[in-house]
């Protein structure tokens, strides 16, 4: 192949890859962090919860199951369980997407996934409490 054909081939491959990625990420329920929404999620720790959340007028959500929530929760947190995505989505649709939202689960795994979902639902800033309730209880011993 000559140089021109190689360049054309490379351009076609890059265009195809770009279109494929765009189509893959067009589903709002897709569990993917793209470069454009990566900055909308910030992982935070216990010190941020203590400094910026407790006693403040913020949207602070415990996404664990109702049973986990009843066994203990962080003050001021409202429970919206991630276990049922339809209910989860409908309840979050009622919240203010322009205001930051702080979420946590037990250890950080569910909140990581939920943060990506919330960005796909249109939330501008999601704070994901790394370590979740487990880290919180360890910090208060």
Please outline the helices and strands.
Elements: H1 3-24, H2 35-38, E1 41-44, H3 46-53, E2 59-62, H4 66-70, E3 78-79, H5 85-93, E4 101-104, H6 109-120, E5 126-129, H7 132-139
Rg is: 19 Å
Helix/strand order: HHEHEHEHEHEH
Find the CATH topology. Answer: Oxidized Rhodanese, domain 1
Whole-number tally of structural domains: 1
| Percentage of residues in strands | 5-15%
What is the share of helical residues?
40-55%
Average of pLDDT: 84
Q: How far apart are the termini? A: 69 Å
Task: Name the CATH homologous superfamily.
Answer: Rhodanese-like domain
CATH class: Alpha Beta
Structural class: alpha/beta
How many DSSP H or I helices? Answer: 7
Could you describe the 3D structure shown?
This protein is α/β, with parallel strands linked by helices and 141 residues long. It has one domain (39-139): 3-Layer(aba) Sandwich (Oxidized Rhodanese, domain 1). The protein has helices at 3-24, 35-38, 46-53, 66-70, 85-93, 109-120, 132-139, and strands at 41-44, 59-62, 78-79, 101-104, 126-129. It has a 5-stranded parallel sheet. β2 (59-62), α4 and β3 (78-79) form a beta-alpha-beta unit. The N and C termini lie far apart (69 Å). Residues 19-33 have low confidence and may be disordered.
Task: Identify the notable features of this structure and list them briefly.
141 residues; five-stranded parallel β-sheet; Oxidized Rhodanese, domain 1; alpha/beta
